Protein: histidine kinase
Amino acid sequence: MREGRLLQTGWRLASDGTGVYASEVIDAIRNDAGEHLGFSLALRDNSAQAATEQALEAARRALFQSQKLEMIGQLTGGVAHDFNNLLSAILGNLELGRRRLPAGSDVTRFLDNAIVGAKRGAVLVGRMMNFAREREIDVRPVELPALFEDLCELLGKALGPETVIQSNFPDKLAPLRIDPHQLELALMNLLINARDAMARGGSIRLAARNRRIVAGSDCAAVPGRYVQLDITDSGCGMDTETLSRAREVFFTTKPPGKGTGLGLSMVQGLVDSVEGQMSIKSRPGKGTTVTLLLPAAMERAAGELADDEVETVDVEDHQERKLRIVVVDDDALVLMNSAALLNDLGHETFAHSSAEEALTFLRRSKTRLPVDLVLTDHAMPRMTGLEFARIIRDSWPSLPVILATGYSEDVVDGNDIVSARLQKPFGLRDLRATITAVAEGSAARNGAGGAAMMPPSRVSAILR
Ligand SMILES: Nc1ncnc2c1ncn2[C@@H]1O[C@H](COP(=O)(O)OP(=O)(O)OP(=O)(O)O)[C@@H](O)[C@H]1O
Ligand SMILES: [Mg+2]
Structure:
């Protein structure tokens, strides 16, 4: 009435119930004498234009996000470099300070901890620098288990304590022909996706095996030797719509700031560049398995397998029996390390960061014990390794327990509860010897009627 005309745009509901993005012009109609007679309304359907604008806005936001990521990459390189210098100063001075302390001083322990922390920091910074550097693609033979072990160290606690990673790499896994940094990045993306899908924690299982694709098989890959890697989570899974779009660039279901939707498209890009395959199986509520088929490297170091052996060699063929082992340690790094050593020996591991968690895992399977052996740290908050071993002896008398103890811990009793002890830090050799002895002992006593205790002669042979 006051201005004579009103322009406005907005969503309106059409008579058939559909939404229409409309531009409206409302004019006041007056007669020659200036008296107001009424209004006229002209309405134009602008839905198509609105949709285009929305898409443009989404693309702008995605571009901004990816530029931000690139910037973080560049910044990381710069900051990491300065930070490395700071760390060198910290480390150098800590070590100098430590040397001037009288022997046996209380303070030494604190300084040692600080030195270990700073060294870990230096490793981390080195990785970040590597990660941020703009690099030529560098395809070469890559040992997956070693790369994965390093990656776990880097990811460490980033995945959170509720996420357990179980890995199962056969002893004679063929090396891959791939750029190790890109592979690291791809695995990181897949692990983080799996973690994000498990809001209340859970386990991520990694399994790898050698595969040969022959001409005429129904697999789309070029015939040749491959390594198949399955990454399985017990998370929320995906519905068909999400699953069909998951690999699209910038497709994400995560809230702003949580995901850019670049992860899987990057993994797909890597897989394509090495002529591998990626498939994703997922159902809502039933978890997800991402399977990567990556080409194996042709060149082999001296002393490795001949061509034909690759397909047939499996963990089972290894001279030692493959065991399923529960590993418990409250220090994430130590836990990863023990699991990696055991995997290296061809065993399958179930890693847990506390005795309670491991007990829940053991109790979950009602009928048959899911494992052959337990390797546990002793000094842990809430429940010690020895207390844990006692519960195991009472509940599953035939399940052997190896107790790992540090130098300073003097656990005198418990010889009747644990099957063997292991001094920390232990290496592959110690670990293998102890496991072989315990496995033999456990087979022997199960054969002899399943007595809970190992014969004393056996115990003293194993206890060091
Ligand atoms: N393991 C999984 N379980 C359930 N959904 C998944 C899983 N992996 C991927 N998705 C779905 O696919 C989408 C795309 O994944 P992608 O890794 O490409 O991007 P993002 O994780 O959302 O973001 P970014 O990886 O860039 O941080 C995710 O948003 C999620 O909806
Ligand atoms: Mg992702």
Notes: The longest strand covers residues 19-30. The chain has four domains: 5-45, 50-132, 161-315, 324-462.
